């Protein structure tokens, strides 16, 4: 049975561009709103995971949710949009429930119809769109199930994707509030006066490196590094190219999106010293083996000035590839951009790398420093000390135990991330959105 709640809905250009940046090789596509699947027998006391798009391996939120809950059963997955042609790789039942406005009464009616005979015992919401908030609130009110909110992206403080009224209501009814970065937690605490706990992106235990690698294996080519993950804005890429060009340093871009939505051909980047390997993306084990042989990794981020085209991402978000680098390879990390970004603060405060602006001379100096043998070893030792803290073992149960308690079950994440948490008030907020 299909529910035609909003058949004319179209993604606007800004959101389409942003969502394309999350994808690996999919084309954004809107499917009819409503229920995607129905099981033969209804789920009873299910765990409801509320996200924005299909949960699959082609975007970071999907990877993390699969990593956390993929081995569990009795999962109800609820989303508000399709951007992968309905490709869902998660849960025993997947529902797509869209809303053309932000009326909770109307959303409650749609959600009740879509749920049918399925019942919910616990809820984890990872909101990105207003419709995701409506879905989480409606399921919570209809079921009475306790609600946890896990913020992986900012859509309300430095960005204006979710109205204040909806975000406040969601956060106030939640029994547990989690944030993926210390900066994100601090910003929302300052704005809403509600306590957030920290939970970083976790890493598969089987990939975590539990020993130091010989220096000769990682410093064989000290002026060859890797770029890992997405580059979110055109300005970021342009600044990176200007910085690397003529520096004598070569970077290999191990990315999930390469140049799918950015201007610049592989040939043009190669001339600047940025190489994009041919062929499909490496599997995680293959990628890990490559990272373990690299002298350093570069994470491009934002400049936080008026020309930064992805300021909210740079300001508050923690790239999931940073914990991945720390845990699986111990590769020292050089964050390029403003030193106040969440990425720069996290790397610097954990002692696993350094930050430098988009400036060729400063970049060359930073590469020389990060590849100096004693400095490089010091960063790797610190990464080894933190590596096991990012394990995915027990992370799902920690969330549910924390939800039952109404606070962090223990301080396994809080105690080591607390030092990276900003002491000052939240950064300047975006305009109020209702």
Notes on the protein architecture:
With 434 residues, the protein is an alpha/beta fold. The strands form two sheets. It has a seven-stranded parallel beta sheet, sandwiched between helices. Strands 10-9-8-11-12-13 form a six-stranded parallel beta sheet, with helices on both faces. Residues 1-40 and 424-434 have low confidence and may be disordered. The protein folds into two domains: 13-198, Rossmann fold; 205-389, Glycogen Phosphorylase B (Rossmann fold). The two termini are 35 Å apart. The protein has helices at residues 13-20, 60-69, 104-115, 130-143, 164-173, 182-192, 215-218, 234-244, 266-271, 284-291, 311-316, 321-328, 342-350, 360-370, 373-387, 395-405, 414-417, and strands at 46-50, 75-79, 93-96, 120-125, 147-151, 176-179, 197-198, 224-228, 250-254, 274-275, 297-300, 333-336, 353-356. The longest helix is centred in the last third of the chain and has 15 residues, at 373-387. Helix content is 36%, strand content 13%.
Task: Sum up the structure in keywords.
434 residues; alpha/beta; Rossmann fold; 2 domains; seven-stranded parallel sheet; 17 helices; 13% strand; globular
Secondary-structure blueprint of this entry?
Blueprint: H1 13-20, E1 46-50, H2 60-69, E2 75-79, E3 93-96, H3 104-115, E4 120-125, H4 130-143, E5 147-151, H5 164-173, E6 176-179, H6 182-192, E7 197-198, H7 215-218, E8 224-228, H8 234-244, E9 250-254, H9 266-271, E10 274-275, H10 284-291, E11 297-300, H11 311-316, H12 321-328, E12 333-336, H13 342-350, E13 353-356, H14 360-370, H15 373-387, H16 395-405, H17 414-417
Parallel strand pairs: 1-2, 1-4, 2-3, 4-5, 5-6, 6-7, 8-9, 8-11, 9-10, 11-12, 12-13
